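Q: I have 696 residues here and want to know how they pack in 3D. Can you give me a structure?
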Amino acid sequence: MLYSYCVAPQTAHAVGRAKHLTYLIGLLSGIVLLSLAELGAVADQPPASALPQGITFLEESVAGPYVFTGTVTVSQPAQAELRVVFNLGEQTGDHYLLSVKGNEAQFYKVHGGNNQPLGLSGTINWQTGEPVNFSLRRERWRISFIYGAQVITRAYDSNLDGNRVGYSAKDCTISDWFIQELGEMYMSDDFMRPPDEESGWEVVSGTWRQQSLRVDRQAERMQAELSANAFSYLGKAAEGRALATVGYWFWEGYLWQAAMRAVKEGAMGVVGYYQDPDNYLAVRWTSRLPTSPEADRLELIEVKEGQENILAETQGGFLSGQWYQMGLVVSGGLVTVYIDDQLRLAARTDHFGQGQVGFLAEGEAGVFFDDALLRRWAVLSEKFEQPVPGKWQVLCGQWALGQDGTARVGSAGLAAVVGGEQEWADYKYGADVQAGGGGLGLIFGYTAPNDYYIFRWAPPGSPVAYAGQAQIVHMTDSQAEVIKAAPLQHNARSKARAKVTIQQGLITGWLEGKPQIQALQEGLPGGAVGLYAEQANSVAFDNVYAEELPPPSTAHLAKEFTDVKKHRDMAEWGSRRAPWIAPEDPNRPDARWQTKGDYFGDKAVELTIPDIGSVAGTMMITVDADPDQQPSGYTLTIIAEKDSKTLQVVLLAESRKLTEGTVEVAGDSCSVRFARQGEYLITIVDDEVVFKQPVE
């Protein structure tokens, strides 16, 4: 069974919503509730010189991402004023401020006594005399204010790290407020559990049950503990729509995906930002075979107060009986839909702003769902349609928005601007670039003005030192350390799509979909992204897009049967040897085990060598091999001697030696990772890089 939540310890401060608190206590361990009424006093105030006037501060200080939430009741909408101070530095007085006056809401950054607007102002339509839920989300780089089920305004900044939160209200009342701290988001479910085991899923409508993938008479007698993965979640709707949900109300910025298979015609999909049965986002996919108007469609639906609105749609339905993987990404108002990792739909919405996830099924025959996965997924999308104060920070040069909706450089020399989350680690980042006669680039890994990386290039004849080259550069204290340079494989004199990908330390720069340069940088930190120009004062950038990359997938091995006597006929395919072709004589010294499948692109083999020093022996790992030709591919050979903790390590290309060395092992065993990453072969023993060899 694989079913898990990974949520950092959550804390709620002050008076919470009664129903939600019961829910949180039931699902999370380590929750602490602190009531202002019970404590009988407000928090100690920051120094008077640093204290914004008229603010009541919460008892507890708060570090890290969180949601300040509660209900607000407005008596006089035109005169209502709400101020929320957050990330207040107790010594400096610097803080962020949400200011709502009448029906206008705006975020500010108060730094050194100066008020700087952040983001765009938003309009709020108060509901007079009724308590309405609100949420102020303070995440890593993103800030948003939600009233009811509407995102009123968004802002972007991560510079202030104070930990005090407070508020003031005029002609409105704040009640039932608490702070929900945000941890890492992760959930997976393969539905491999007994039917009576607690699952966390909540049935909203229709019928849902865990069931074998088989639909014959033996299906009800199948046992989960004796199966590799025979169970899934089956949803049916005799009429209307079947919905099942899971997760937490405060989830935002995530990828939610699952495998699904419809038994017959009907509709299937996933749900995000779920609030209640009348408010949620849904992906609805219909069969391609029926002749009804709704058939053969993929739709992104927004359900608001029970009314459906199609945000995006495209032609193309599913075939019943076939498995598909559907993914829904929601991040900062951008919604994207993937089918089998292919982007199919994209839209924007300011509704909901947070919520649970779930499944959708229509039809009496039902839909099977399996391998559900949710993980954090941050996206940056920028079309430069209007200035958004605080979203981009100018490092140098002059930048302005052109009338054509592009970011333009208005000065010679160096020009750089950055934005996004500094916590990003592995991600892809791209932009449309209109050449300006000089050097151009994409900034990544930005942590400070004197510490960031650039993928840059310049066409031949440009007035820069790297004319005719593509480079990966590390900028430190305004000095450019060239990590790697390569001849430019693109004319770079016209508009082009530029992209840089960073994954596990491997940096790849692309122009028009063709790789220009690769470099492997150990210890590459996460960081924000940006745009770069040098001696190119007519350059323009547009359609900036960045998103995190998922971790590399693994080759799945079937769970080994613990009692093969009951399943002798399945012992071979159900054992750990199943993905391998066994040698005719496994006892021969040169016996080779080969994978049954081919593995294309980047790949890694990870294993543990036991009993080091106790026995002598040789182990070999080969990648990119041709099973009909020996020797072939790249082979890592590790030789161990008895009574020695020193391992000899040799790397071969076919039969030719590329490099060799030795490794001292401290323990009785060691981990080994042999990887092909782009243009490099990487060998790691016990987290120590032994070889970083370019592929020849």
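Q: Anything worth noting?
A: Residues 673 and 684 are 5 Å apart (CA to CA). Helices lie at 18-27, 36-39, 571-574.
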